[in-house]
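Quick log. Single chain, no ligands specified.
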Amino acid sequence: MADTAGRGAGLSRRGFLGLSAIGVGLGLGATGWGPWPGGAVAAPRAAGDAPLRFVVLTDTHANPEEAARMENLRRVFAAVDAEQPQFVLHCGDITDYGSDDEFAAYRAAIPDGLWDRLRHAPGNHEIRWDTSARERFQRWFGPTSYSFDAGGVHFVALDPTQALQEPGLFGDDLERLRDDLDHVGDTPTVMFLHYPLAGRNYYVNDTDAFLRTIDPYPVRGIFAGHIHRNEIDRFNGLTQVAAVATRSGPFYLRVTQFDDGDGRRLLVEQVTLGATDADAATVQLIGEMPLDAPPAGEDPIRIAARPGDAAIALTAVAGHSASAVEARVHPQAVFGAVDDGAWTPLSPRGASWHGALDAGTLAAGVHRVQVRATDAAGGRRYDTSEIDRRGATRARPAWDLAIGGQLQGALAAHERTVVATSTSGRVVAIEIEGASRHRRRWATDLGPAHRGAAFTTDGALVCVPGADHRLTALDARTGDVAWISRFDKPVMSTPAVIATGDGDRILVAAEDRLRSLDAHGRTLWEASVPVRTAGRAASDGTRVFVGAGDGRAYAYDLATGAQVWSFLTNERPDSYRQLIYGPWDDWIEVLPTGAVLISTVTHAIAVDPATGAELWRVAGSHIFAPSLMLPDGGLLLTTEWGVVSVVDPATGALRWSGQAVPRVVNAGPVLDPRDGTAWLVSVGGLLAAIDPVAGAVVVDRQLFTANTFATPVVVGEQLIVGAQDGVLRGLTI
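-> predicted structure:
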C-alpha cells in the first residue's frame, strides 16, 4: 500500500554505522563496528592463563543438499570443539548461496558449546546471490565488520563484499577502519576477510587504497579464504595466510601464539582429520606470523610516473632493503580473479630505480602504475601511482560530480534530466546543458540503493528502490517524497514502468515478491517469485515477465497477477546451480516482434509471450547486459565477456559478432541517436564505440580505475557514466 510517512534514514553500506561492539570475553577491552547478539562470548580460557590459541577455517560452503559435505563439517567442528580454542575465525563462504536453509544446516553442524566462540566474515557466496544478504547474515551471525581484542592482539573482521556482485570493494569502509585503528595504538592487529589481497590477487578493486589506509598502523597479519588452498605472502609489513577450504576435506588451521625471545609470533598449523573419527589427525606447519615487528617490506615506495606516447617513464625510490624493483600497469581488465602477468624490472641508479613501461597499446585516460620492491628474504612492498595518459578520443571528459557511496544501479533519464542513486542513500538529479555542462536540480537522502531508479512515463515521478525495504516515489522537479511503498524485504531490483490505458503500472520486486502499483503508489496486486529475483520485470501490456531463482522465468497476468506460464532455463542438479545458472538477475525484455528475451549465464532465449514456448536461443552469458534495439531492426547483444553481436530479433540469426571490451557486468550499451553509435563501458571502466551497421568496434578511453555496474545514458551531446567510486561523470561525445 502507499505510505506518505517520512523518508528513511540513510544507512552505511555495511549496516554497522554508529554501533558498538562487545568483546570476546577474554578480559580485554573491545572496540568495534557492530554489536554481538546476546552479549559477550563465553571463553574457556582467560587472558594470561595460556598463550593465545585459536582456529581459522574458511569456505565451508554448507549446503543441506550435500550430505557428505555436511558430515565433513560436523567432524571438523567436533574436532575444533575438542581443542577448546579461545575463538574461531571463519573467513567466509559459509554457505553456497546464503539461504536460511543453508545457514540452519551450518548451525546444526556446530556443537552448542562452540557456537558463541565463532567469529564470521562474509564471503561472496553469502552476498553475491542474495537480495537480503547482509540482513540475513546479521540475523545469524551479527555484524559483518567489527573488531575485538584478545591476548594482546587486536582482531578486525573486514567485509569488502558487494551486494549482488562477485568481487570486493572496501569503499567508504576504509574511513571506519581508520577510525578503529586510531583507537588501538601500538597493539598489533590481525585482520580476517574472505578475499586474499595484493600479490597476484585482484579480487578487491581498491586493494591499493586499503594498503595505504593501514600503512601507518601495526597491522601484522591477514587471514583469508576464497582460493581454497594454503598460501602465505609477506608484503607491506604484514603476513597474509590464505587458508585451505574446509569444503574440500576435514581441514582447519590451528593458530598458537609463542615467544622464543625474538618477539611474539603466531604459529600456523594445518590440522587434517583422519579418514574416520577413530583415526588420528595429522598436523603440518604452515608458517609464522610475526606480531611485535614487521617483516621486511615496510618502507613505502615513492613513485614518479611520466606517461608519453609510447612509454611510461618511471622513477622509484624504494627502501634500503630492496634488492629488486619491478613495475607494471595495473591490469584493470582483471575482474575478481588472479593475474600472473609480467612485471618489468627497473634498474638501480644511486638511491633510486629507473625504467619504462610500454604504453603503445594503452588506451588514453586514467590508469594505475604498480611498483613492487622485493628484499633478499622474499618480502615485498606494493605501492601504486595514478596517471592520465593523453590521446585523441571521441569522448572527452567534461565534468564530474562526487555523490559518495557506490553508483551501482543503471542511470535513469527523462528528456534532459538524469537521476543517479547510490549505496550511500544519496539520490541526485541533474539537468544536462549543452555539450559539456550540467546543473544540479536536487539531492535527497533515502535508504541505500543498489539498483537504478525509473521515471514514470510522463516524467513527473522518479521511483527509487531501497535496501531499507521501500520503493520511494520522488517528485522529479523537486525531489520531494510523493509516496512510499513498503516491503518486508530489501527492494533490490530496478522498477519497470509500463504505460496502460488505465495509467502507468510500476512493477518492482523485493526478493520473492513481485508487486504492481499504480502511479499513486496503490498496490494493485502481489505475486510470489520462487526463491528471489534481482533483475527487472518487463511487460507486453497483457502479461508481466520476470526471472526467478529456481532457474525459471515466469509470466503473470498484468491485470491480476495470476501466473500464466513458466519456462525452465536450465536443468542443473541442485538449488544452488539452478539459481546461479538461471535468469534471477536478468532484465527481461520484450522485443518488437513480441517475443520475450530471457538471458542467463549460458544463453539468450526468446520465447512466445502467450505460451512460453521457445522460439530461438543464442549461446553466451548475456544476463549481465541488457540488449539494445537498433534503428535498422537489429538486436545488439552483449556477453559478460565483452563480445557484442547483432542478431535478427525474429530468428536469432547472427549478422556479425566481435570483441568490444574485456568484461561487462550490468552496464549495457546505450545508443547515440544522432549517429547510431552504441557506447559500451566495461566493468573495468574502458569505453568502446560500436558501429552496429558496419560491425566495427573502436576502444576509445579508459574512463577511471573504479569498476562500473551502471548502464550509462546519452542525453543530447553527452554520455553520463556512474561508477563504484561514487562519482558521476559527463563526457562530450
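Helices lie at 67-83, 100-108, 112-115, 124-127, 133-141, 173-182, 207-214, 575-580.
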